[in-house]
């Protein structure tokens, strides 16, 4: 999930991009919440049972899991009570390239399942706990439950055509929302201006805000380079080169500019480049190619036409080892096509009759980050409406068996948070005129060696980044 | 080198008391003209602006403009060590890591000095336009404090309506509702300090969170008068003039009905 090790890399290399704020800081702001991520968090975190017994998810009388409902209900109320206006964005279909990642997750699940059985036989509570958390899945039913709850609460939601992170990022980029709340760092790869972590987590932890622009400055990269960095570090869409961690990925990208040049320059013996990262020649039935049009113009059609009648060709062609990958690649080309022209210098090779250069996996991953499948954010509008009190009670108390008192107090808070009026922020009236710490003295103090800072500014509780 | 001396040291105490509940950390900017401070609360709903002219100090020297990053609660703790009639002197280097506070008792028998560690604080500065307000109400600060305190018991939001006749503060809550109307004083009524004066171009009605107005009234000990400036759909200014030295002004964004 997300980009491996990105948070730490940012904390190390661009600490000024990360800021901590109290929840109140976001009073009056619209925030897009990655719903799938939030649901998953609730399913993991909200459990009961302690001491000797293995903790289990909350369930109602019928044994249906209700952790996510409980979590979403309480967290959403907390956000609204702090003056934040949330918009929940759900995942649509998984991107085709994610197939590999999803396969991996499935394998992990199966393993966890058998481990859980083993632990139950051995009555190892700790292990049961660990494995049962691994089994948690935010599936269709959970999403549907949550959508229903949001509807009743009067909170807007939408389903992204594909990945929720991409949709969230697009909303934030044009200013429809102020920030995106998720734990998933690949939201940054989609160039989200502000990423908020800890928004949906329990407790009073401060919210960590990652500023995209400051992060790029701190890392010394352009947006395109940052995407390449994320792919090198390991994203959801493709495997990465073994032996290259966050630090070396950053060094390599800084030195060579992009993945193509990194691949040219690293020692093939030392690093194992995954086979799908190498350009491959694929043989196709010549008939499936429109003879007149060069394939580079309409790779989309080409891919589509090739699909149905092309199974033999697929079998005879150089094929990926994994079943199903073939089809995914085909579709991936669609997305990749747009950027392919700029990034693949050997494009002309495609027009060789009957042969098609297949896009390396990283190019397709890049395309997914640059041109994700999203709803046009400009056309989306959100409305927060009065909660449906009777509906909420029927859903939560009657059908899910929640404690009526808690539900009622929740509804009361919900109504109070809406109130008749919206508290405005001062900065919606007065424009910022720069920050006051930019005076020369403070800058000097900031540059002062850490040792001096330690002795000078710790005692009176004034620790500040 | 920065040095500022106030014979009436308790003034500084009162100022910090008036700010520290609203704002925990702030940069105080010292320049030739005097001291200024602008800081917002955590929710960015209100802003506090302090202005102390150099002429108001008994001695004032500032060779180079500096910015002092202060934890106000901690400054308050140190100021508690000063006697109410002590003379207070503030000192800092040109590139300070600490602020020195010196307290001298009136008869010079007791002299104490404290150093407060400074912090790096990054705050957003808001540019506040110098605009004319449609209504300016001047009233006894104690009266305003009492109204805010009374209404806060009943509800969270206060409707302030200013007309020619007077200013009406209204609140409604679960237990009921209430109104307090303050009328313009006629010129004959005694002391000028106790008078309510209204200057108005057009009537204004705005909604405000009583919680924040309550924070503002912590400045009541600083002066006998408070001025409320209002225009439609913009933040209210609650200004406490401080005799002879400057003022402390609070800005609060209104609550607006969006539906």
Which helices and strands occur, and which strands form pairs?
The complex is a heterodimer of chains A (465) and B (259).
Chain A: H1 6-13, E1 18-21, E2 30-34, H2 35-45, E3 47-48, E4 56-57, H3 67-81, E5 85-90, H4 99-122, H5 125-134, H6 140-153, E6 157-159, H7 164-173, E7 179-181, H8 186-189, E8 194-197, E9 207-211, H9 212-219, H10 223-233, H11 246-256, H12 259-265, E10 280-283, H13 299-309, H14 311-316, H15 325-343, E11 355-358, H16 361-370, H17 389-399, H18 404-418, E12 422-423, E13 431-435, H19 440-447, H20 450-457
Helix pairs in contact in A: 2-3, 3-6, 3-18, 4-5, 10-11, 10-16, 11-12, 13-15, 15-16, 17-18
Chain B: E1 2-6, H1 10-19, E2 25-31, E3 34-40, E4 46-53, E5 59-62, E6 66-71, H2 72-79, E7 87-92, E8 98-104, E9 111-117, E10 124-127, E11 135-140, H3 141-154, E12 157-162, E13 166-172, E14 177-183, E15 197-200, E16 204-209, H4 210-216, E17 225-230, E18 236-242, E19 246-252, E20 255-256
Antiparallel strand pairs in B: 1-5, 1-7, 2-3, 2-6, 3-4, 4-19, 7-8, 8-9, 11-15, 11-17, 12-13, 12-16, 13-14, 17-18, 18-19
Helix pairs in contact in B: 1-2, 3-4
């Amino acid at each position: 999930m997300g980009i491996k090790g990105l948070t730490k890399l940012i904390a190390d290399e661009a600490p000024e991009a990360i800021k901590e704020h109290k929840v109140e800081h976001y009073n009056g702001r619209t925030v897009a919440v990655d719903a799938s991520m939030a649901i998953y968090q609730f399913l993991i975190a909200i459990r009961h049972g302690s001491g000797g017994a293995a903790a289990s998810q909350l369930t109602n009388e019928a044994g249906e899991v209700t952790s996510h409902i409980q979590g979403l209900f309480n967290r959403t109320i907390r956000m609204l009570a702090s003056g934040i206006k949330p918009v929940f964005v759900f995942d649509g279909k998984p991107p085709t390239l994610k197939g590999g990642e999803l396969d991996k997750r499935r394998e992990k699940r199966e393993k966890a399942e058998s481990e859980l059985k083993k632990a139950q036989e051995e009555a190892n509570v700790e292990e049961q706990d660990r494995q049962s958390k691994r089994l948690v899945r935010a599936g269709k039913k959970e999403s549907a439950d949550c959508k229903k709850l949001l509807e009743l609460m009067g909170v807007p939601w939408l389903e992204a055509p594909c990945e929720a992170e991409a949709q969230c990022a697009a909303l934030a980029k044009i200013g429809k929302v102020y920030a995106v709340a998720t734990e998933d760092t690949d939201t940054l790869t989609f160039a989200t201006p502000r990423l908020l972590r800890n928004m949906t987590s329990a407790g009073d932890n401060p919210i960590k805000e990652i500023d995209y622009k400051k992060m790029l400055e701190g890392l010394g990269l352009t947006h395109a380079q940052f995407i390449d960095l994320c792919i090198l570090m390991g994203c959801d869409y493709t495997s990465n080169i073994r032996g290259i961690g966050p630090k070396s990925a950053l060094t390599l990208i800084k030195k060579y500019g992009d993945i193509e040049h990194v691949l040219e320059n690293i020692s093939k013996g030392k690093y194992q480049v995954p086979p799908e990262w190498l350009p491959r020649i694929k043989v196709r039935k010549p008939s499936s190619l429109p003879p007149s049009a060069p394939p580079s113009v309409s790779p989309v059609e080409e891919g589509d036409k090739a699909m149905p009648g092309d199974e033999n060709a697929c079998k005879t062609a150089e094929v990926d080892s994994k079943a199903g990958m073939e089809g995914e690649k085909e579709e991936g080309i669609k997305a990749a096509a747009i950027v392919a022209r700029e990034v693949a210098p050997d494009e002309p090779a495609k027009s060789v009759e009957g042969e098609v250069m297949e896009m390396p996996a990283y190019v397709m991953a890049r395309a997914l980050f640059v041109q994700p499948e999203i709803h046009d954010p400009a056309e989306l509008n959100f409305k927060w409406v009065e909660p449906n009190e009777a509906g909420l009670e029927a859903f939560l108390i009657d059908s899910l068996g929640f404690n009526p008192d808690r539900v009622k107090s929740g509804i009361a808070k919900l109504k109070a948070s809406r109130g008749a009026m919206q508290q405005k922020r001062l900065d919606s009236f007065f424009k910022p005129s720069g920050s006051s710490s930019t005076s020369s003295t403070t800058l000097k103090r900031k540059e002062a060696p850490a040792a001096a800072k330690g002795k000078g500014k710790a005692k009176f509780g004034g620790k500040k980044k | 080198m920065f040095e500022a001396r106030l014979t009436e040291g308790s003034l500084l105490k009162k100022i910090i008391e008036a700010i520290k509940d609203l704002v925990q950390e702030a940069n105080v900017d010292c320049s030739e003209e005097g001291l200024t401070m602008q800081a917002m609360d955590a929710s960015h709903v209100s802003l506090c602006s302090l202005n102390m002219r150099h002429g108001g100090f008994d001695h004032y020297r500032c060779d180079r403009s500096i910015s002092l990053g202060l934890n106000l609660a901690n400054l308050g703790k140190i100021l508690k060590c000063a006697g109410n009639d002590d003379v207070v002197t503030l000192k800092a280097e040109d590139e300070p890591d600490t602020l020195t506070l010196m307290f001298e008792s009136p008869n010079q028998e007791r002299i104490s000095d404290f150093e407060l560690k400074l912090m790096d604080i990054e705050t957003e500065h808001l540019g506040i336009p110098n605009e004319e307000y449609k209504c300016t109400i001047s009233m006894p600060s104690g009266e305003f404090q009492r109204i805010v305190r009374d209404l806060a018991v009943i509800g969270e939001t206060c409707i302030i309506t200013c007309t020619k006749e007077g200013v009406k503060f209204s609140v409604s809550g679960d237990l009921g509702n209430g109104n307090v109307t303050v009328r313009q004083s006629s010129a004959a009524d005694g002391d000028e300090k106790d008078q309510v004066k209204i200057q108005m171009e057009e009537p204004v009605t705005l909604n405000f969170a009583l919680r924040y107005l309550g924070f503002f009234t912590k400045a009541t000990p600083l002066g006998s008068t408070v001025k409320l400036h209002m225009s439609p759909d913009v933040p209210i200014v609650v200004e406490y003039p401080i005799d002879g030295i400057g003022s402390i002004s609070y800005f609060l964004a209104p609550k607006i009905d969006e539906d």
